[in-house]
What does this fold into?
Amino acid sequence: MPITKTEQFRAKEIRLSRWAKALAHPARVAILRTLAKRNACVCGEIVEVLPIAQATVSQHLKELKEAGLVKGTIEGPSSCYCLDNEAITEMAGDLNVLFDELAGGCAEASCSTKGKSK
Amino acid sequence: MPITKTEQFRAKEIRLSRWAKALAHPARVAILRTLAKRNACVCGEIVEVLPIAQATVSQHLKELKEAGLVKGTIEGPSSCYCLDNEAITEMAGDLNVLFDELAGGCAEASCSTKGKSK
DNA sequence: TATCTTTATCGTAAAGATACGATAAAGGAA
DNA sequence: TTCCTTTATCGTATCTTTACGATAAAGATA
It folds into this structure.
């Protein structure tokens, strides 16, 4: 992205793509699912489950925190992570609005019957 | 991704992250929404709407085609794109399964009450 | 045939994402 | 205090994404 054109898109689309980007790596999806299953858990438990190094897990957790999907609190020497329920509901809502917009988008025949356009 | 560890995650998580990656750029969200609004349209119409160059739009369209969300057919000198309704339904379904799994994931108090773990 | 229009692809540059080892930071245990 | 455990961060390497100009490809048009 040479000069980052992101700002020139609509806020709605930027918002949606940000949610999507948070989910755009299997490790982050796995982290979220793990947190959901255990209700909450320390970083170490996630590291054990995933096939990646501790530093990498920590980095993915940071991204999820920045996306707002996960909250982390310090628990003595370790730290406890859990899902942000409101954010997840918000994300699900936003994406479902998109899915509704896209539903029934193509009439299948609309392509082959158009010879001209513009 | 030095040696791409993607294969080591579960198929479910890889699948979800692939859907998400397709939506992880505002241009691609905008393209999908444009296609939905117009039912189908030629590449040139999309280029006019978006704040990016024609080559870049073509590249995003290619990614959407590879993700399976969009179908393209040649229409004389131009080409006609439209949404793949089944794929979009599938994507919406997959992601909503995830959202359900994540719903109610954190009891809020679960962090501060845990002193030990592992 | 020569030319125009439209789109895909190539080549390339720059930014971002991903991964990991090493190390710092901070609380708990001895 | 000293050491251990746990996690975040730094530094770095590499791959991927994004973007664009230039050009090729292919049908329409004159």
Summary: Chain A touches chain B through 67 residues (CB under 8 Å). Confidence is low (pLDDT under 50) at residues 1-5, 113-118 of chain A. Residues 1-5, 42-44, 47, 54-55, 57-59, 61-62, 74, 76-79 of chain A lie near DNA strand D (CB under 10 Å from a C1').
